[in-house]
Amino acid sequence: MNGVVYGEAVKRFVSERLQGLAIREPAQGIGYTRNGHVVAGILYEDWNGASVVCHMAASGRFTREFLRIAAEYAFRQLGVHKIIAPVFGDNFRMRNVAGKMGFILEGELRDCAPHGVSILTYTLTAENCPFLGERYIRAIRGRKVWKHTEEGLLAKM
After folding, report:
1. Rounded to two decimals, what is the model's pTM?
2. Does residue 122 contact residue 98 with C-beta atoms inside 8 Å?
3. Superfamily of domain 3-152
4. What is the pLDDT of residues 89-137, one digit of tens each?
């Protein structure tokens, strides 16, 4: 079965691919499964009302619908102005994915990753998000997927 999933399995999938970086709770995972296995995930943490940090990982193909749901979660449900995505400098695949998703390279932290490379800081605003355009908005109008919790994270309804 293919589709969007939420929760602990996604957190594990992303965490295992972060090469030693710790995830701070509370965190929310949104993932995509193919044939019953998580092949892509986005983990949101450090929500402060204005921004949220996301970590992305993938080991297979995923859909634009998955990316739309992930963007809608951050911008519409959390209400942030900016998503911040740290990406290891040697992770060319994720750098490419971030660019295709509309993220802009905003900064570089040199030689600070556990394996000695830079961490690149990509950011995305709702205005630059290709998945929140009118054709995506029409597809989701009237559909509520999340409910707000006290911690600022959301649970699937």
Report:
1. 0.77
2. yes
3. Gcn5-related N-acetyltransferase (GNAT) (3.40.630.30)
4. 888 888 988 888 899 999 999 988 778 889 999 999 988 888 886 655 5
